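Regression test case RT-17, inverse folding.

Input:
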C-alpha cells in the first residue's frame, strides 16, 4: 500500500471538471500512474474525510510537443474522476 500523499498528486481544475463538480458531485484528480481504484478511494476518503461512491480512471497519453527543431513529449498521466455521496463536498478554494 502506497502513502496516500503519493497516490493523489493534485486536483484537476478545468472548466469540464468544475461543471462535473457542480452538476454531478464529481471531483477530478491527477493520480499516480501505478495506483488502482482501491488505493485512490482510500486516499480520497482519508485525506478529505468524505465517502466515495464510484471511481472512474483513465490513462492519458502525453501530447507530442515541438520547440524549434527539438521535439519532445509531455508526460503520460492518469486521471481519476471520483463520485461523492450526496451531501458530501470537497472545496479546493475556501474563499470562493
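Golden output:
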Amino acid at each position: 500500500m502506497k502513502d496516500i500523499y503519493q497516490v493523489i498528486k493534485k486536483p484537476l481544475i478545468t472548466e469540464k471538471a468544475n461543471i462535473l463538480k457542480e452538476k454531478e458531485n464529481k471531483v477530478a484528480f491527477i493520480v499516480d500512474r501505478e495506483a488502482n481504484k482501491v488505493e485512490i478511494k482510500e486516499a480520497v476518503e482519508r485525506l478529505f474525510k468524505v465517502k466515495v461512491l464510484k471511481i472512474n480512471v483513465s490513462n492519458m497519453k502525453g501530447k507530442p510537443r515541438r520547440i524549434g527543431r527539438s521535439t519532445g513529449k509531455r508526460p503520460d498521466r492518469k486521471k481519476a474522476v471520483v463520485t461523492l455521496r450526496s451531501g458530501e463536498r470537497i472545496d479546493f478554494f475556501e474563499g470562493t
